[in-house]
Structure formats: structure tokens, C-alpha cells
Design a protein that fits this description.
- With about 600 residues, the protein is mainly alpha-helical.
- The protein has a domain of about 140 residues: Butyryl-CoA Dehydrogenase, subunit A, domain 3, CATH 1.20.140.70.
- About 65% of the residues lie in helices and about 5% in strands.
- It is globular and about 75 Å long.
- Keywords: Coiled coil, Hydrolase, Metal-binding, Metalloprotease, Protease, Zinc.
Length: about 600
């Protein structure tokens, strides 16, 4: 790539005028009317397949238009947390999302009344067979719901209760600034500074970081407690015994799979602890502190420009798949990415789809380090995954979060492995291996700490509200266990600073990341063994992610049983090999 790439995304292609766009308002108005009509239609559905063909066509069209507007509004909120009109629009989006959920509740209420033979005739209809997986999933879900009128009431109340707490959290984060080095840093800008090579800078920043979150901790604890209380109350009325029932069903995976994965992760803790201890020695610390986890082990790597990062990613994707490389090149040229380092952006990164336009948008803040390059590759993996599914019926484009992380982490592995292979010196190889192991620590230890915290929090929350001090203690306890007591300083306010705990669309927004990381490691090993021939099989696997359970997907495309520890142990070998190589290269 010789042209200078634009570091900001193009949103005008969807709706001109940002949060004041007349086109956007018109689309939201149309979506609201369409959803109201579909609600009436859903109430009158019979078991006749012909009723469902027309209804589902109209429903998929309306949800596509809604998703387009919702993604746009979320992008507006991310690119400028001061955009108050975008927050207002997000309220409308939440109302429409509630309307979609209500339509689904009514639809599932009708599904529940059909006899088995009627149902089989319906899902066998030629026009409905392509979405039979989604319909059968709805029928199974319907069996676990309350009576339809009660589900509708709960859904309506959730807009200004349950989902409002996520909006409250976003508002609080938007007003937080971190005073540091003579500047007022946004949360996203401050977080990026934790990779600063100077430990004194990281330590000072962490103190300010903790102070900023502590000031808002009471309000954030209020949001977390009541969000969880709503969820627990709803589960109780549905007769659900386990708080994991919903996240497991959303991720289309079994409890046995989750337990096999976490068991394998626990077995890897000693090796990861050895890495943490060696990293501490390399940076001159007795033990690592929380603020050291993203620090480089040395300064042998150089920062790169956005254009250089894009060229490197495209080149490495091409080694595996020309189609994937061409896709990335198109995304860069067409301004799908928002990477500019500027104030008032939201923290973190994500990829969101615009299914009607059949494109995606990627959000992050790029600082030029190797981690930033990996993040771009990661989010492009998400976008590539979506691109392979845009021609499928919308009802089977909805892949679960755990397998969503497969394509992203796979893309990241391609790029990080290439960087390590092409390292110009031992020091650079150590730095790059260290960065990749930092990522493994995040996905195997940090995510595990989040899961342990959230599981125990819900157990305690069922008995009453938790104070800030109790939440801090619960968080530190989980971190000590997950990190094998390998840190000298922990982050007890992590429950406040991590937005994933406040998402209402994805309860337990944690274990899917570990699943995706390890699942993709298994896929990556297969790709390296089979070479170019694996490209088509990989694409087929991704296309099936919205129409199979997780276990079916692994069995069909990899011949693997995810409920057995062997798959997870094999996947972990990629990480353990990295640890061995890192320890060898850094031995005295």
C-alpha cells in the first residue's frame, strides 16, 4: 500500500449528518412502524407454513434495518462520548430492541402451542428449511419461558430497568477523565498508556486510574447490583436454577464443554506463572503488578504507522488466504476502520456489522505498538467472518459470541506468528513472544478471574446487595486465584472499570473469549498442518457458526469432542510452546 490511509471511518455512507441525520431518524421511525405491524402479525400466526414464510421475510427485513441503525448509533457513541444526542438515539434503539424481543416472545408463545407433527411440517417446508436451526432453537427456548404476557411485561420493564443500567454505566464512563502528565486523558487514552515501557509512568498512572474509578464506585456498584438483581429475579420467575443457563444457551454450548475448558486452563496456570515470574525479573521487579501486565519486556520492537500495520496484515493474511487478504485491503481502502488516537473516544475496540449494506466497521485507538497491530487483525477477523455470512438468511447469520472469537483470534495468530518468525534479533523475538504471552495471560487468567468473580458475585447477590468494599474483596480474591497468586499488586476495582460486566445482551461476557482463543488455536494448528487446502474448510466452518451448536460445529469440521479435555489440552500446547521458547530465550 503506497497511499496514506485515512485513520477515521466513513459513517456518512450509511446516514449523513451523524446524530442529527434526517435519514437516520426516518429509518428509526420506519423500523418502529414495521415492528408494531409485525407484533400484530405474530399474535395471529398459525401452524400453516405459508403464514411463516411471509412473516419471517418481513421480520428479517425489519431486523436488518434496525441493526443497521443500531450499529450506526453505537458507532456515534464510541467515536465521541460527548455526543449526547447519540445517547438519546441509543434510548430509541433500546426501545426497538425491546420490540424485537417482544415479537420473539409472542412468536415463541405461538410456537409452543403447535403439535409435534405440525411443527415438523412447518420446518420441513422448502422456504423454511434453510432457517430450521433457528426455528428449532426458538421452540426449545419457548419451552423454558414464562407465559407470553408475563414475558412481554418483563421485556417492557427491562427497557427502563435492566437495560437502563448499561446506559447509566456508559454515561458514567463517558464523564471520567484521568489527570496525568498535564493532560486530562479519556479512559481509552489512559488505558493505552499501561503499555508504556517506563514502570514509574505505569505505576503513577495506575494510582490515578484507581482514584478515578473509586470516585464513581458507589454509583457503578448501584448499577451492577440492580442489573444483577433484575436478572436473578427474571430467572427465578422462569424457574431457572443456574445463572449460567442463559449464557450457555446464548453460546450454544453445554456445561460439560465449559467445565472441560476451565479444567484445562487451570492445568496451565503453573506454566503461565513461570512466564509471569520471568517477565518480572526482566523488567526489574520482584513480582509483577497489575499495571505491568501489558508492559513490554524490552524495547526491541519499534512502533509502526497505521499504513505499515495495514500492509503487514494484508501480506500475512495472503499467506493463508488470498480472499482474506483482498478483503482486508478493501476494508482499509474503504475506511471501515476508526483508529485515530484522539480525546473523547470510548475505550476498547470492537467490530460491528451493517447487515443491510453487507459491510462492517471497526473501532479502536491505534498507538503503533505490536499489540495495536494484533488488535486490528483481530477485528478484521470478525469482519471477515461476517462477510462470509451476509448472503445467508438473516436468521442464521446470528452466530454466538464464543465462536465469534474464532475468526478474530485466528487472524491475530496469523499476524503475531509472522511477526515472531520475521524478528530481526533475539531481543525482538523475546519482545514479540512476550506480547503474545501477555495476550494469553489476559485470555486464560484475566478472563478466568472475571468468570470466577461474576459466578461468586451472583451467588452472593442472590442474598442481598454488595458494597463497594465487598465487590473489591471478591474481585481481588478471583484475581489471586486466576493468576496463581503471581502478582504483587492487584486491581480490586476491575469490576468497575470493565464494561463487559454491564452488557445486558450478553450475560457472562467473559468465558466466550477464552473459548474463542483456544478453539481458534486448535483451528490454527489444523490450518498450519494442512496448508492452503484448509482455506475452504475454514470458510465453511465460519459459515456454519450460525446454524449449529458449538459441539456440532467442532465435530463436523474438526472431528473434535469439546466435552473432553483432550481438545483443550491440545489447543493449550500452542501457548505452552510459547512459554518454553520464551523461557529458553531469556535464560541467564
Amino acid at each position: 500500500m503506497t497511499a496514506v490511509l485515512n485513520e477515521t471511518w466513513d459513517l456518512d455512507v450509511f446516514f449523513r449528518g451523524g446524530s442529527s441525520s434526517p435519514e437516520l431518524l426516518a429509518q428509526l421511525d420506519q423500523v418502529e412502524r414495521d415492528l408494531a405491524d409485525l407484533m400484530e402479525e405474530a399474535r395471529n400466526l398459525t401452524a400453516r407454513p405459508e403464514d411463516w414464510v411471509g412473516f419471517l421475510d418481513r421480520l428479517q427485513g425489519a431486523v436488518e434495518r434496525f441493526s443497521e441503525a443500531a450499529s450506526f448509533v453505537y458507532c456515534l457513541m464510541s467515536q465521541d462520548v460527548r455526543d449526547r444526542q447519540a445517547v438519546v438515539l441509543f434510548g430509541r434503539v433500546q426501545q426497538s430492541a425491546a420490540a424485537v424481543r417482544s415479537i420473539n416472545a409472542v412468536m415463541e408463545g405461538r410456537i409452543k402451542t403447535f403439535a409435534d407433527d405440525e411443527w415438523q411440517a412447518l420446518v420441513s417446508h422448502p422456504r423454511l428449511a434453510p432457517v430450521a436451526f433457528a426455528l428449532n432453537e426458538s421452540r426449545r427456548r419457548a419451552a423454558d419461558q414464562m407465559e407470553t404476557s408475563r414475558e412481554l411485561l418483563a421485556n417492557d420493564l427491562a427497557v427502563d430497568g435492566y437495560h437502563a443500567y448499561e446506559t447509566l454505566y456508559t454515561t458514567v464512563v463517558g464523564r471520567i477523565t484521568i489527570p496525568f502528565d498535564g493532560k486530562e486523558l479519556s479512559v481509552g487514552q489512559a488505558y493505552n498508556r499501561f503499555s508504556d515501557p517506563d514502570r514509574a509512568v505505569r505505576q503513577a498512572l495506575f494510582a490515578r486510574w484507581e482514584e478515578a474509578w473509586a470516585k464513581e464506585a458507589d454509583l457503578i456498584a448501584h448499577a451492577l447490583n440492580h442489573l444483577a438483581g433484575f436478572r436473578l429475579g427474571l430467572y427465578r420467575h422462569r424457574g431457572w436454577q443456574s445463572v449460567l443457563k442463559e449464557p450457555l444457551e446464548l453460546n450454544r454450548m453445554r456445561q460439560e464443554t465449559l467445565e472441560a475448558m476451565w479444567s484445562a486452563v487451570a492445568s496451565a496456570r503453573p506454566a503461565l506463572r513461570r512466564f509471569l515470574d520471568r517477565k518480572a525479573r526482566l523488567i526489574g521487579a520482584e513480582r509483577l503488578a497489575w499495571y505491568d501486565l501489558d508492559a513490554p519486556v524490552n524495547q526491541a520492537t519499534r512502533n509502526v504507522s497505521y499504513d505499515e500495520a495495514a500492509a503487514f496484515i494484508e501480506e500475512q493474511f495472503r499467506q493463508f488466504s488470498p480472499r482474506m487478504a483482498d478483503f482486508a485491503a478493501h476494508a482499509f481502502r474503504s475506511r471501515w476502520l476508526e483508529v485515530e488516537d484522539r480525546p473523547h473516544k470510548a475505550p476498547g475496540g470492537y467490530c460491528t456489522s451493517f447487515p443491510r449494506s453487507k459491510v462492517s466497521r471497526i473501532f479502536m485507538t491505534f498507538s503503533g505498538d505490536p499489540g495495536g497491530v494484533s488488535t486490528i487483525a483481530h477485528e478484521l477477523g470478525h469482519a471477515y467472518h461476517s462477510s462470509l455470512m451476509f448472503d445467508l438468511p438473516f436468521l442464521v447469520q446470528n452466530y454466538a459470541m464464543n465462536v465469534a472469537e474464532t475468526a478474530s483470534t485466528f487472524a491475530e495468530l496469523i499476524v503475531s506468528s509472522a511477526a515472531i518468525r520475521s524478528a530481526a534479533s533475539r531481543e525482538e523475538k523475546v519482545a514479540l513472544l512476550g506480547g503474545r504471552l501477555d495476550n494469553a495471560v489476559a485470555l486464560l487468567m484475566n478472563i478466568n478471574a472475571r468468570f470466577l468473580f461474576e459466578t461468586r458475585f451472583y451467588e452472593r447477590r442472590a442474598k442481598g446487595l454488595l458494597s463497594v468494599a465487598e465487590l473489591n474483596a471478591l474481585m481481588e480474591e478471583a484475581q489471586r486465584e486466576a493468576y496463581a497468586d503471581g502478582l504483587g499488586v492487584y486491581h480490586p476495582l476491575f469490576w468497575a472499570s470493565k464494561g463487559h460486566f454491564y452488557g445486558t445482551d450478553q450475560p457472562f461476557y467473559n468465558f466466550p473469549y477464552t473459548f474463542g482463543f483456544l478453539f481458534s488455536a486448535g483451528v490454527y494448528a489444523r490450518a498450519m498442518a494442512e496448508g492452503p487446502a484448509f482455506e475452504e474448510r475454514y470458510a465453511a466452518l465460519l459459515r456454519d457458526t450460525g446454524r449449529m451448536t458449538t459441539e456440532e460445529l467442532a465435530q463436523r469440521h474438526l472431528g473434535a469432542d469439546l466435552t473432553r479435555p483432550e481438545f483443550w489440552e491440545d489447543a493449550l500446547s500452542v501457548v505452552l510452546d510459547d512459554v518454553k521458547e520464551f523461557l529458553r530465550l531469556t535464560a541467564e
